[in-house]
Each structure stands twice: as structure tokens, then as C-alpha cells.
Amino acid sequence: MSLRDTLETLCQQHGLACILAINDEGLVMAEAGTAPAEEFAPYLPMAVETSNRMAENGGFGEPLCNALVLSGGSMLIMYRTLVAGRAVYLSLLCSRVPAGLKTLLERITNEVAGAIGA
Predict the structure, then answer these.
(1) Where are the beta strands (DSSP E) in 54-108?
(2) Cα separation values, 44 from 13, 53, 70, Å
(3) Per-residue b/e over 68-82, b at no fewer than 16 CB within 10 Å?
(4) Cα–Cα distances in angstroms (integers) from residue 110 to residues 23, 81, 83, 107, in the given order
């Protein structure tokens, strides 16, 4: 099964509108579901890194992930991980936090790593 097919299946299983994997240069590595406009990708690394820094500087510790609550009730979950020593940023668009979010983020990370041979 291709990475895109796997991500599409995960979208359906977890009620996600979109899954996006972006490299540290802001380029799309993989996507499934209804992808946002292409102008979105370059901003994801900056948004995640800024949110992480804010949490740490505020004394909240290192976050598991970051989320934006959007008008209309959608939520954009953003996550930074490492694949083969390089940062990969995941974005999930959903209407509610999926059950087993940490496991889902790890599964997507493993699928991306497998697809790039890491």
C-alpha cells in the first residue's frame, strides 16, 4: 500500500479531514484528504517551532503537539517529529481530537519514515 493510501485510510478511520507531512524546508512530503492551499505548507514549521518555544518559555514544558481551534469548530493539530535525523512536521485537520492521538502521530511518523526508507 502506498503512503498516500495508508494516510487516506487513517483519515477515514480517525475522522480526519486532512493529513499533511511537511519537511523542514516547508515542502509537502505526503498528503491525504482535503489538502489546504499550497501556501500553507511553508508556515507549518514556523508555527510549530514558535508554539513549542512559547510553551517552554512560559514554563509549560515541551508540548506533545500544538493545536489551533478554527472558526466553524475545526481543529488543526500540528506536530514535530524526527525522521532519519531531520525534522518532519505533521498537520491533521479534524473536528475533534482523535482517540489515541499520540499513537496516531507515531503511526504516521513510522509510515513516512518507511516511505522514505529511513
Answers:
(1) 66-69, 75-83, 86-94
(2) 24, 14, 15
(3) eeeeeeebbbbbbbe
(4) 15, 10, 8, 5
Domain at 3-115, CATH from 2.40.30.10, 3.40.1180.10, 3.90.1580.10, 3.30.450.30: 3.30.450.30
Q: Render pLDDT for 40-97 as a digit per residue (tens, 0 to 9).
A: 889 999 999 999 999 999 999 888 899 999 998 899 999 999 999 999 999 999 999 9
Total Cβ atoms within 10 A of residue 109: 18
Looking at residue 61, its amino acid is G
CB atoms within 10 A of CB 90: 23
> Which candidate, 96, 50, 58, places its Cα nearest to that of 77?
96
Residue type at position 5: D
Helix runs in the chain, H state only: 3-14, 43-57, 101-115
Sign of CA dihedral 49, 50, 55, 59: positive
